[in-house]
Amino acid sequence: MPGKTQFSDNLRKQISLSSLNSGGDRLYGRSSEESILMNSYYAALTLRTNSPANIVLINGESGLGKTRLAEKLCSYATDDDGYKIRGKFDQSSYGAANLPYSGIANAFRELCSQLDQREDDKEDFLKALSREVDTSEGTFLCEAFPSLKSLLPHIDDETSSDPSKFNDSLRSPKNRFHRLNYILKKFTSAITSVGDPIVFLLDDVQWSDASSLALIKTMASSAKSPFIFVFTYRPIPNDHPFLKMIEEVEKRNSVAELKLKGLIWIETASIVENCQLFFVASQTASYIPVLRKASILSRLTLFLGILGNPLFVRQHIITLYDKKLIRVVDGELVWDLDHIEKSHDIARSLNSMTFDGIRRLPESAQLGLQLCAFIGSHATYEVIEILAREICVEKSYGANGTSPACIGRDLLSPAIEDGLLIESQDGSSVSFVHDCVQTAAYSLLEDENQEQFHCKLGQILKAAWPGTDSWSSDVLFTVANQFGRGHKFVEECDRMEVISILVRATEECRMVADFKGAHWFYDVAVEKFLVRINWERNHRLCCKVYLNAAENALWAGVLHETDRWLNYLGQYIEGSRIDELRSLWVRLNWMATTRGGEAAIDYGLQKLNSLVGIKIVQNNIKMRTMFAMIKTRRLMNAHDESTLLQLPRMSQITFACALRVLNLIAIMCAASKPQMAGLVCLKIVELNMKHGISSTMPQAIAWYGVMLKVSRRFPVSEAYKYADIALKLQDELKSADSKAQVAVLCHGMIYSTKHNFSESIKPLEDGHIEGLQAGDVRQAMICAHIICIMKFYSGQPLTHAAAVLEQYSQLMRELNTPTLLGVNFIYEQIIKLLSSRLRPSRKQSFTLEGSISQDKTQQEMEHAYAGQTLTAYILDDYRSAWKASEEFQKICNTKNSLLAVQTSCVRCLAALALLHNGTTSWEGLSGKIKLKKIVKSGRKFLNSMSKISPINVGPMHGLVEAEYATVCCQKKYDLAQQLYSLAVEKFSQTGRTQFEALAWERFALHDIKRGNQYAGNEKLRKAYELYDKWGANLKCDLMKRKHEDVFV
Fold it and tell me: Are 423 and 416 in contact (CB under 8 A)?
């Protein structure tokens, strides 16, 4: 059935792919989704400043308008003087390699471009960033995202890391990834603090890589309102890494999900009409009855509406026009629906239709699109022009001395006019309007010729940019990618140069912790090139590449490749101790991941013995450790502090590598074989003293100090001396990856008996930050863990301690440290209980719900029982306190730790309270005898510990002695009064509010027992004030109930 309508002269352009969303801001059939977007945006604006950023997910098949819908949300932000930044993940680099974090990098590039046009706003961003990100952090961040240099002008280009030397400052590459996460977290927090709405759109996250997703997760956890993330993606499996990431962030962030479906018939009709194919007016189509016009429109719309996909509908219309199934006759557009339905396949794929459309372009335009497709979804004119200089001249597309720039732009202008390419705002690059266009353009060349063409492009670009050392990251990865995809056609004479390009690309990736991208380049270098070159002539290069590739595969999670490459390398490095030791370090990391720490320790010690004669016997460990302690003490005492610090630095590379392996074994021992850790650390000290100081010495000396203190066989002053030396040596060596560990050992374990708790908090906070900056997440989190405990036991207000716990717990959740997070949860429960109010109308439990159970780790159980002991005693539940302390004694490994000392003190106090109150009937005479034995042994233990730590243990020992004089000694009330007064004074000096309040309370009960009611009441009021200052509301309510006459 034929039909006619008035023809628009510019029809082909109007219905081109560039006008996929023609009609201005109008969205077809998406009113409900648009409403959800608007609500999400304005909800983000109305949230308080520190609220987590909102996240919007848009899911749907290709062509349903996901990006167009997301850009509608972006328009709200730009209308409010905010920012729309967009990044896109490239289909062609999925599972391969590209510029590291390309999707995020594109978004940051767009942010910088927008800020360059808004100078006043840029100043606000610069000020916020200068407060958060220092010079070294800015330099590191710009290595990952070069476009940020305009936002971080205070960075020093000269301090940029050298890819070949990055292991010197951060020996573990994995630390660099943690550091990048930490700095990006600060960067995101800074830009969100400015207060302008920011919509961060990431397209096609189904093609995102694991490293980029980890950074996106970091940004989502640190961004604050009014920052909104928008992710568009196609249907993906439930186990896709992106969905797993969303599961984690939605615990904290508000997530709205939109699932787009195909359009209904009437919505498809709106699209058809908007393409201006059916301009029905009485003066131009009066010969067609109105009913017939509706019928014609309905049939074509219904025919196309089967798809329900806006992109498919538009492309089918374009195809109908190009195939002349819709044609122009005498200025009018004519079609025959019966013929269309018979000859046009409605089921044709989008790619095949786009391919046909590209084929109708001039040959030069086809070549331009093909060049862009082989480069990626985004290509600069500079690259296209270089390629055009060679290829277009060959095909006679650029003659008569036409400049390369004109050649490049002339090639692409038909595709831009046809809407297949979009030019960037600054006019320096182009990108494909949709990935279907890139796929179709890539397939213009037959499959068997594609790899050869990649190789040819790589050769052209390499020749155009001589001197690979001066290449920018964009150039390097473009060339490396071409050679990686066209490796089969690289000539033998060029192989070594191509290998060097690939290796440099891996170093750039590893420098910014993109281990997946580095693995792709390593895989090409190893499997496609190194297997074809002579090992004897290139032994050093082959060893380096294989070893680095095996290590990188470990961090990338490709463990089978690590094992395979190390096995292959082993047959070529036998007899080379340095290479074998470096290989051993990677092997031990692999074994710890796949077979467990104990197997790695046993294997590592065996290999060290055979390679360099470092022998550590694993039987009779306690005895051997003691002998090693005596030997090391004799060796160390031969030097004073100044001579130790002036010892020569290690120059033997063999022993430096051996000590690196031994230090790794020491770390593994701390987790898997704690009884071996001391022996290994003593061996590290011995080797450093013998062969020269290395970067392993500071933590080894700190461990030695801890062992001196724990053994209690040597003066504690020696432990303090070596802690001082460890800190000074750490500052001299400037080894970034051990700062946090040295802070833990010195300030968290050694100085905890020398200084008041509050004095150790600041150095531990510095250690925590330094650990995060260096990427040493484990030790940074241990610093945070000790800070949380000290905040609680140092007597700071519970509200402040709770805020610190919440801050560090959030970080522990993000960095996946469940054991430390479990300990924090216990103290959160304690604070919640103590801060609660007494419920007079019903029975109230004073236990820590859910904190003590069989599925807890040893560390969690220790803190749970210690916390239950103190809490129950403060709340006058002496029996529960005594029982919890008994359980603590059964499981505690370190009997003289401050946690154990404090629990022992409360255990004695609880036993004395039970004896004083005569509440031992539940145990009979045996219970009374047992309590007296507990008191006797506890007093003896506290007496010895108070000599080691008079500032922290002395006041607690004094309080126990005062209680003992009251309960167990006859007529020693005057002595008890003196001891109470002294304990109160000491607790007040150290600022431990809860123990000062406890001492006043016990002192008051002592006065009341002696008949001095007035003095006792005054002391009770003083205790109440201190409990209230501490924030223990429940204890205050109990005191009011118990002493109503005092608190009227």
Answer: yes
Q: What pLDDT, in 10s, does the model give residues 981-998?
A: 999 999 888 888 999 999
pTM (predicted TM-score)? 0.78
The C-alpha atoms of residue 780 and residue 214 are separated, in whole angstroms, by 19
Provide the pairing of β-strand 54-59 with 227-233.
Answer: parallel
Take residue 309 and report the two structure tokens written for it. Answer: 């996909």
Distance between CA atoms of 240 and 209, rounded to whole angstroms? 11
pLDDT tens-digit map of 799-821: 999 988 888 887 787 777 777 88
Query: Which pair of structure tokens corresponds to residue 407?
Result: 């050649």
The tokens describing 384, both together, are 């296209």
222 has a pLDDT exceeding 70: yes
Alpha carbon distance 331, 531 (integer Å): 66
Which distant-in-sequence residues (6+ apart) come within 8 Å of 364 by Cβ? Answer: 392, 395, 397, 410, 411, 414
Residue 151's identity, in one-letter code, is: L
Q: State phi, psi for 970 to the nearest 5 degrees.
A: -85, 130
Question: Residue 763 burial by CB count (10 A; 0-12/13-18/19+): exposed, middle or buried?
Answer: middle
Q: In this structure, what are the phi and psi dihedrals at residue 422, rounded to the nearest 5 degrees?
A: -120, 130
- How much is the average pLDDT of 221-235? 87
Dist CA 911 CA 927 (whole Å): 10
How are beta strands 332-336 and 2-6 bridged, if at all? antiparallel
805's tokens: 């716990």
For 359-395, letters b (16+ CB in 10 Å) and e give eebeebbbbbbbbbbbbbbbbbbbbbbbbbbbbbeee
CB atoms within 10 A of CB 849: 9
Angstrom distance (rounded) from CA 441 to CA 453 = 14
Residue in 846, 831, 889 with CA at minimum distance from that of residue 865: 889
Cα separation, 295 vs 298, whole angstroms: 5
CA–CA separation, 270 vs 263, rounded Å?
A: 10
Output Rg (C-alpha) for the chain, integer angstroms. 36
Cα–Cα nearest to 968, from 912, 906, 911, 909: 912
Report the distance separating Cα 880 and Cα 847, nearest Å: 9
Instruction: Tell me the pairing of strands 227-233 and 255-259.
Output: unpaired
- How many Cα atoms within 13 Å fall on the side-chain side of residue 13? 6
Task: Give 33-72 pLDDT, tens digit per residue.
Answer: 878 888 878 777 776 667 888 888 998 887 777 888 888 8
941, 904 contact by CB (below 8 A): yes
Output the six-digit token pair for 671.
Answer: 């987790």
Task: Please give the C-alpha separations between residue 313 and each of 63, 263, 309, 327, in angstroms, as whole numbers.
Answer: 9, 10, 6, 18
Question: What distances in angstroms separate CA 470 from CA 382, 384, 476, 510, 534, one per listed residue?
Answer: 16, 20, 9, 19, 28
CA distance 882 to 86: 61
pLDDT digits (tens, 9 = 90+) for 861-892: 888 899 899 999 998 888 888 888 888 888 88
Q: Where are the alpha helices (DSSP H) in 856-953?
A: 858-874, 878-891, 898-917, 924-948
Work out the angle between the directed axes of helices 363-375 and 350-359 (0-180°, nearest 10): 130
User: Of 1018, 1016, 1006, 920, whose CA–CA distance to 965 is shortest?
Assistant: 1006
984 Cβ contact partners less than 8 Å away, ≥ 6 residues apart = 996, 999, 1000, 1003
**CA pair distance 126, 115, nearest whole angstrom:** 10
Residues 367 and 391 sit within 8 Å (Cβ to Cβ) = yes
Written in H, E and C, the secondary structure of 80-111 is CCCEEEEEECCHHHCCCCCCCCHHHHHHHHHH
User: Bigger pLDDT: 653 or 159?
Assistant: 653
pLDDT band at 315 (very low <50, low <70, confident <90, very high): low
